[in-house]
Design goal:
Shape: globular
Low-confidence stretches: 1-19
Structural class: alpha+beta
Helix content: 40-55%
Number of helices: 19
Oligomer: single chain
Amino acid sequence: MRKLAVFLLLVLVIMTSVLASKVTLTVWCDGAEAPTDIELAIQLFEKDFPDVEVKLTRYACDPYKTKLDVAMASGELPDIFMTWGGGMLREYIDAGRVAPLSEDMVSWMKATVIPATLDEVYYKGKYWGVPFNNIIVGDFFWYRKDIFEKHGLTPPKTWEELISLARKLKSLGYIPIALANKTKWPADHFFATLAARVCGYDVAKEILDGKRSWQDPLMMKTLKKLEELIKLGAFPPGVNGLDFNLAQGRVLVYTDKSPMIPELSFMYALIHSERPDLSDKIDFFPFPIVEEGKGDPRELVGIVGDWFFSISNSSPHKEIAERFLRYLLDPRVVQYKVEHNTFPPVIGLEARVEDPILKRVMKILGESPHVQHCWDTYLPPELAQVYLDTLQKFFDLKITPEEFAKTMDDAYERYKKRHPEFGK
């Protein structure tokens, strides 16, 4: 009996030791709708590393941004977290919350992802994250071919043609452009692309970087062009009350109330997922040229990589975390993403894409001289919030173009006083 007790005690000690040796990696990301691609990466990793458990927590987009900001302030972070790069990631790096990637990790990344996406995670001479989700570019107009054909309509090539199309659609009883802007960022993609057409990449970037006033004549022209479209009634009534995350803009397209919706390239996969029966009725056209604009009409807005996964500086499992990050771009995960109409930012992607619409997107991307990072995540979070709040008010016509520009200049001046290096 004593021997049995000793044996059972020994087994208990061994089991306790084994359990204690199992590492848990905590991961936070956007995507409350359960992104299967990252779950596939986790399954593949845990199969190869059975002593590691990956605990994934997903959040809806806007609550996630708040959650991350609070965690950055408190220092209570997961081992791995996701950002959209840009000013958000740079601010977290400056706060000392992000661990730089090792030389081995950087070598792997340079051999795996396209060069353009490396720029998104390079800052202060180091690399700080791994791109995962998608190459999202545009802004494009996704439209119902059947509705256009029914009324003899053709995709506009210029801004004036877009204005004429919007008037025609209103006369036919349609909502011309099905934007849903409760979450504020959808309007950014539209406005930033319009600014690319009017201002051009260099001028727009100087304004964003605090090196040129928002009251610059080209920016004022951009605002007045948008104001013209808003006053025409091109967007849905109560545009700022419609929730993108609840598909309230897309439903207008699905139910024949609106024939087109502006958004980056991820919209194609979203429509395929939500309404596969409409897939053969959907096409896209590039954002129209602004005749007197200074921008190259091939310029795009977007994020080359979209979700960027970084390691917390406080993580005790940095080496294991780096191993996991490689699985985000495992060939099996990449293949899954391509089959579900997304563009992981890997070398040689063109050869994997078979869908004709996605091939057109890839061709447009390949011909673009610049991809301006989406403004809402390019800007430092403080300025981004002012920008999004102001843009939403503008869509409600609560402020004028002049008031918009002054609000932004005032916000920049306040920010520069606390961050004197900004705008240099």
